[in-house]
UniProtKB/TrEMBL annotation:
InterPro entries registered for this protein in UniProt: FAM240
Top-level taxon in the UniProt lineage: Eukaryota
Name of the protein: Uncharacterized protein
Lineage: Eukaryota, Metazoa, Chordata, Craniata, Vertebrata
Spans annotated as Disordered: 77-96
Length: 96
């Protein structure tokens, strides 16, 4: 009789553990599914947002401005450090 009771107890414990495992699995699957849907919604919202377009436009403007300032600085350096051509050949302009 004792053997039969032990079998009944272990069987009922397995059923409980199995039910709990299935319940947990279903819980987490639902949780993951909801989170996946939320991520997809957020990605769609961001892609439709004008913010990324504005950022790209400002990035292009800043890049153009930096290039313009760099070319201006290079031109100023050339003018500052350039020596007049006459100073190289002072006798070239004199009449013979």
């Amino acid at each position: 009789m004792r053997q039969r009771m032990n079998n009944k107890r272990t069987t009922s414990r397995r059923e409980i553990l199995s039910h709990d495992a299935d319940g947990l699995k279903n819980f987490w699957e639902k949780k993951i599914e909801k989170q996946t849907v939320a991520y997809k919604y957020e990605d769609a919202r961001r892609s439709n947002s004008a913010l990324s377009k504005l950022r790209e436009e400002w990035r292009q403007r800043l890049e153009h401005r930096i290039n313009m300032l760099q070319s201006l600085q290079e031109e100023q350096r050339r003018q500052l450090y350039a020596t007049p051509k006459e100073s190289f050949h002072p006798k070239a302009n004199t009449a013979a």
